[in-house]
Design a protein that fits this description.
Among the domains are: 38-297, Rossmann fold; 391-488. It is built from 14 helices and 17 strands. A hairpin with a 6-residue loop joins strand 15 and strand 16. It has helices spanning 134-143, 156-159, 181-188, 190-204, 218-231, 250-258, 278-290, 320-326, 384-388, 395-403, 407-412, 423-427, 434-496, 502-536; strands at residues 34-36, 42-46, 56-57, 64-65, 70-73, 82-83, 88-96, 106-113, 167-172, 208-214, 236-241, 273-277, 296-302, 310-315, 334-339, 346-348, 361-366. By secondary structure, it is α/β, with parallel strands linked by helices. Residues 1-8 have low confidence and may be disordered. The chain binds iron/sulfur cluster (2 copies). The site of one iron/sulfur cluster (SF4) has 14 residues, from helix 9 and helix 10.
Length: 537
């Protein structure tokens, strides 16, 4: 196995298992530069645009908001803030359709644009980032809502661990067909991307930084090399990687560059590596230098089904139909709308959905590009899916267990290591939509686990309630027992006082005392009368 190279050494590239050579179709969207979308009337911001816990809304309907204002805060360590892309008013907070493979709606904040473009007061760093504490920079990145923009949307600040790491890998691979947003970003904003990488390097205090780019992006490689040369820091290096899908998968790229495998259930940091996407580095540059939270991204609008495929700089929350209109609208033979690429993307029912942090691409296919969808045939156990799986899973076994809803066997076969790259489905002669089975199985498992945990909590609460009720019952019975005992004692006392109650006894004692006093007084009177009589006689 290869060792992580020292910075002066040449890198000996390794390979991962499986993978596919695919038609790239990237030229469609790279002929023009990055265009900017005009402002829209309304923006839709889902509270869940990241891996982790849903954000907590900080605004309510009717509130005035400014551009860049935090609308929702992270609700957990693994969560991300959401910011307003424009100034305006919170129109509603409600369940709204969102771009998700499940097709389910989610809680969204809807902002009416006032078209004043009024920013929240911003405070860029007073000093150079190099003189700023790493934890302060991490806090800024967290408060800016920056997540992995390669599609994973894992909160970036959480990845920037305090653990001493050896290698920072910047992922500029973009291996999926059609998608070119990272390519054009590197071509057009190479210096800003390298600036963001320098900030990350400072935060994690890493020894070396490898910027990996597939060899099908010569212009991006050239622009990035120029930007690095200007820095004169030999800790940086560009590494071109042969074009093979899915080289851009985090674990696959780490294997290619370091020869090391990230073990199942482990993170890259466990083998001293941190991986960030080029677009994430660019977002970090914007937030540190301009105090600009993550309110926009570059998205590829492409495919034979859209009139002018291109890359657009778009505000998060923009309705997708506005993006398609900006690109000339749909062609007459447009067919399917997909978020993401043809391999890892998922089909959308409508374009009345918002661009979210994860939207790296909207692909509109044409009817002649899509073979007629047919019911899939049974698995013939040909093993082709096994040959191409980059994670060395057994896709056909996963398919059996997903079909039979056998969660135990799915876990044994490492379902959650599947990166949903789609290689297995691509080669399957029976046209089985394997990834759909895996996604459904994962969602069902996560859902069941959540329900199990909720039911455990409910059961524990019920048991605690039962204990409380039982204790209260015992306390009540004890009080009753004591009362009964007291009454019984009173009854006994009555018997011993000749049937008299304490009150009766007290009253008779008083009467007796009065009688005794009267008798004494009468006696004294009689004595004095006797003495007087004696004196007179
Ligand atoms: S490629 Fe398709 S048919 Fe062949 S073993 Fe895999 S699932 Fe079965
Ligand atoms: S989708 Fe999953 S099972 Fe299929 S090839 Fe990719 S990693 Fe392997």
């Amino acid at each position: 196995m290869n060792q992580t190279p020292e910075k002066s050494e040449a890198i000996t590239l390794s390979t991962f298992d499986g993978g596919l050579k695919l038609s790239e179709n990237k030229h469609l969207s790279t002929t023009s530069g990055i265009s900017t979308l005009p402002p829209c009337k309304q923006y839709i911001l889902p509270l869940q645009q990241h891996i982790g816990v849903i954000s907590q809304a900080l605004v309510k309907p009717g509130d005035k908001v400014l551009k860049g204002q935090m609308l929702a805060k992270p609700n957990h360590l693994i969560s991300a803030a959401i910011h307003s892309p424009v100034s305006g008013t919170v129109a509603r907070i409600e369940q709204h359709a969102v771009p998700h493979a499940s097709g389910l709606p989610d809680q969204c904040i809807i902002i009416d644009n006032d078209f004043n473009d009024e920013w929240v007061p911003r405070q860029p760093l007073a000093d150079e980032y190099i003189n700023t504490d790493a934890s302060d920079l991490r806090d800024i990145i967290r408060d800016s809502g920056i997540v992995g923009l390669g599609g994973a949307t894992f909160p970036s600040a959480v990845k920037q661990t305090e653990k001493k790491l050896k290698t920072l890998i910047i992922n500029g691979i973009e291996c999926e067909p059609y998608i070119t947003c990272d390519d054009v970003l590197m071509r057009q904003f190479a210096e800003q991307v390298v600036s963001g990488i320098s900030i990350i390097k400072h935060i994690i205090n890493v020894e070396q930084c490898i910027i990996a780019i597939e060899d099908n992006k010569p212009e991006a490689i050239k622009a990035m090399q120029l930007a690095i040369d200007k820095k004169s820091d030999d800790a940086f290096r560009i590494q071109t990687v042969p074009t093979l899908y899915p080289s851009g998968g985090e674990k696959q790229l780490i294997k290619i560059l370091t020869g090391k495998e990230v073990p199942s259930h482990c993170y890259p940091a466990d083998i001293d590596v941190l991986c960030h996407n080029v677009a994430t580095a660019y977002a970090i540059h914007r937030t540190i230098y301009f105090a600009e939270p993550l309110i926009s991204r570059i998205t590829t609008i492409t495919g034979q089904g859209v009139v002018q495929p291109q890359n657009i700089a778009v505000l998060i929350g923009t309705p997708m139909q506005s993006c398609i209109e900006h690109c000339g609208g749909y062609t007459k033979n447009s067919d399917e709308l997909i978020m993401g690429g043809p391999m890892m993307g998922f089909s959308l029912e409508s374009d009345a959905l918002p661009i979210v942090k994860a939207t790296n691409c909207l692909l509109v296919t044409a009817k002649d590009e899509n073979p007629e969808k047919q019911t899939h045939l049974p698995c013939i156990r040909c093993g082709k899916c096994v040959d191409v799986c980059p994670v060395r899973l057994l896709p056909q076994q996963l398919y059996w267990y997903a079909s039979s809803k056998n969660a135990e066997r799915l876990l044994e076969h490492n379902l959650f290591d599947c990166i949903e790259c789609g290689c297995c489905a691509y080669v399957c002669p029976s046209d089985i939509p394997l990834v759909q089975y895996y996604r459904h199985a994962k969602t069902t498992y996560v859902q069941q686990e959540r329900e199990r945990k909720l039911s455990d909590i409910a059961r524990q609460r019920h048991e605690a309630h039962q204990l409380r009720v039982e204790k209260q019952k015992q306390e009540r019975e004890e009080r009753l027992r004591k009362k009964r005992e007291m009454l019984k004692n009173k009854a006994t006392d009555k018997k011993t006082t000749g049937g008299k109650t304490n009150k009766d006894a007290k009253q008779s004692a008083i009467t007796e005392a009065i009688a005794r006093a009267k008798a004494k007084k009468a006696e004294r009177l009689k004595e004095s009368e006797t003495k007087s009589e004696k004196k007179e006689s």
